[in-house]
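Example record

Each entry pairs one chain with its bound ligand, zinc ion.
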Amino acid sequence: MNRNDQVTERIRLWGIVQGVGFRPFVAKTADRLHIKGEVLNIGGLVEIVVTDTSERIDDFINALERDKPLPAEIVHIKRRRESFRPFNSFTILDSDQGDDEAAMIPADLAVCPDCLAEMRDPSDPRYQHPFISCMVCGPRYTIIDRIPYDRENTTMIDFPMCDFCEKEYTSIQDRRYHAQTISCHDCGPELSMTVEQGVALLAAGEVIAFKSMGGYNLICDPLSDGAVAKLREIKRREQKPFAIMFRDLEQIQQYCYVSDIEAKLLASSARPILLLEHKPSDSAEIEKSRFIGSFLPSMGAQYLLLEQISPLIVTSANLSEQPIIKDDEIMNALIKREPLIKGVISNQRRIQVRMDDSVARVIDGQPQMIRRSKGYAPVPLYTDTSFPGQILAAGGQLKNSFALTKGPFVYMSQYFGDMDSLENQEIYEENIQRMESLFRIKPQLAVCDLHPLYYTTAFAEKSGLPLLRVQHHHAHVASVMAEHALKGQVIGVSFDGTGYGTDGAIWGGEFLLCQGGEFERMDHLRYVRMLGGDASMKEAWKSAVSYMHAWETGYRQKDEGVAVDLTDIIEFATKEKERAWHGEELARKAISAGINTIESSSMGRLFDAVAALLGIKDRNDYEGQCAILLEDAAATPEKGRANQLALEFHHQIAKMILDTCVKIREKTGVSQVALTGGVFQNKILMEDSLSLLREYGFQVFYNVSVSPNDGGIALGQAYIAMKKKEAEGGN
Ligand SMILES: [Zn+2]
Ligand SMILES: [Zn+2]
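Structure tokens for the complex follow.
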């Protein structure tokens, strides 16, 4: 090798590269490829300096990306040529305190295969240790207090290491070298009830509480109707299907259809709840929906339990739309009040940050986040921007997450849920402060929704920062543009239940032409006069009455907006279906007179209306229920006329998306399309739309790392602000 071919490069890696054994991995990879240089942690990132030929440095970086240890995540790589500097070997340098760059804190990591093997080995000192962990696994963000991520800055400070653990912690060859969550039977947290006692209660059909990484769960046997009934009683008869935890992949496969990519996602260190289509089942609980929210255990303690009784319903112990419970006192108080909770498997390790389980699915052969929380937050997303400043994006009102940005890095918060809840508001504010201090972010700009009545809008207003208000559906589209670094113009198809429009109407079936931080509304679902108010959002039959009224009063003759054809559906509703909507007459009068009505182009409410008209469901007992059941009906068109019409309706909407996009392309030449908004959680609609649009030559993009529902809004808000700032050319 000729010295003249050699160059020195400084390589910076952002992502989850600290606290996961990344530097030793870099050193090993360099050794293997005979690359010489050095590696160190700077602030929250890893810096590598190497000298070799450009090609070999390329190979080295490819190997780092390809072979990185399981929990590591590389968000961004920056390479810079340096003046030539020869090295004799590859060395790991001590960490630099440098703090000029974006800090990263790892997300929580599920127990790794090596630790699991030890936990199951009777000869291992950590045999059956419920809190077994190592350098590449264990809780992270939920126990951290301050950076850097060191033991004394986490709630593990309550558990001084024994000599045995200390020895591993300090020996550089050990896989627990500097593993901040290291503990054993002698020095670690303990379960408040034995696994056997818990199993006995569960086997007897009881509900018990369990303290997991991000908060308290309620657990019970999904195959015991009695246990499920008790759980619903405790959860105030919530109708939503519960997530189910299985002891291993093989057991999930007994219940569900699992593709390779789904199997990989289930076993990933984030251990998301994955929406899987299930096989026919005797269980009434499982037959409630086409999908089971299925997941694998994250902690040793969960494995110990599930090895004896599996599957188990695992749901948060709080009531729906209330924050997940993290503190022992709160849980104990609840148990005192609630005799149906027969016990609790707790432990003394404090949870610093509450964190719901994440929810994901695989669509179009790709993972898509539905709720980005445990295992993902607070890993930042990297966006394509030259804006160097810092932004707070307040997010939406429901399914809320906020975002903080530092240069191109967007730190999405965990999931908070419904911001109408006072408890959630408090936790939201607490977490903004916490993330600002952890990541040393001082926003110079706040972004919020256009809606004047959102709590998050009020919060942004009182922050005292310069304020940018962003239209809801524009933010949805921008979240897709941010994720895929889309350049030029994009046709955004943004469908959801509700969002405040620039004309004061309620939008939700929008076709927006977007570029940078700007948008133009190209088309929308035809306006219908709807009964207003929050209650009407739940009452799908009110949407149905609104559509019937519109149908009878010239809907088809209007020329603004894109119309749907409800002829067959309304005919079915009037002829074949015995309707008993208490209050229908009153509702019709109110709509005619325009009392408490709004103009709306909401696609979500159209789905509600159709579900009610087809007699499938006329009320949302939980958010999105009518649309979910309408989709379930469409999945089995052979089961009757209503189901057949449900499927035709899905096809019609997909065709409407295609036709409208074709029209916009004829006008503008744009062929990039972004599909986003909560309505696209509908798998049939999503797959139909994707295949039609692709058939007609569109490039279609959708959300992957953030949710298509309002959980992803904050990313779009931040992105729009960045792009507007870039266009202003200012900081
Ligand atoms: Zn481990
Ligand atoms: Zn120990």
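The pocket of zinc ion (ligand 2) is lined by residues 161-162, 164-165, 183-184, 186-187 (CB under 6 Å).
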